[in-house]
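== Folding the chain ==

***
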Amino acid sequence: MLNLLILLFSLLVSIYEGSEILNTPWEWEHTAIFSNLTNEQLKTTKDILLIDYFIFAAKFSPIYPIVSLIATYSITFQIIFWIKNKLTRIISFWLITFISIILMITLKNSPTQGLHLISILFGLSTFISISIALFLIKNNMEKNTSID
C-alpha cells in the first residue's frame, strides 16, 4: 500500500515538473515522443500528451521519475511473488529482465543526465531480476532433487 502511495505521489510530481514542456516548444521535437507519434505536427500545447510530461521530467528533473520507477518495480516484484506457480514466477522475472535490458540499451547513450541515470536504474533492475530468477531456479532444482 505504501508503494502505491509513493508511486502516485511521485507520478503526480513528475507530471507537474514535466509540465514545463509546455513552455519549451524547442524540446517538443526531441521530447514529446508519444505526441509526435499521434499527431502529424505539434502546433499547440494541447497537442502534448501527459506521458510526454513524464519523459520531459525524466530528462531534466529525474528524481521523482526515478522514484516512480522504483515504486513500480517494487509493486511488480510484490505481485510476482504472490503468484503461486513457480514457473510463471520465474518467467515473469525473465520478462522483466528482457524489458529492462531493452530500456537500458535504448537510454544508455542519452545526451541528458536524467535519462542516463534512468538507464543505470534499468541496468540495476536487470541485475536484480536475473539474480532473483536464478535463485528461484536454483531453489526449485534443490527441492526437486532432495531425497525425502
Remarks:
- The chain has two domains: 1-62, 83-148.
- Residues 1-62 form one domain.
- The chain has a mean pLDDT of 91.
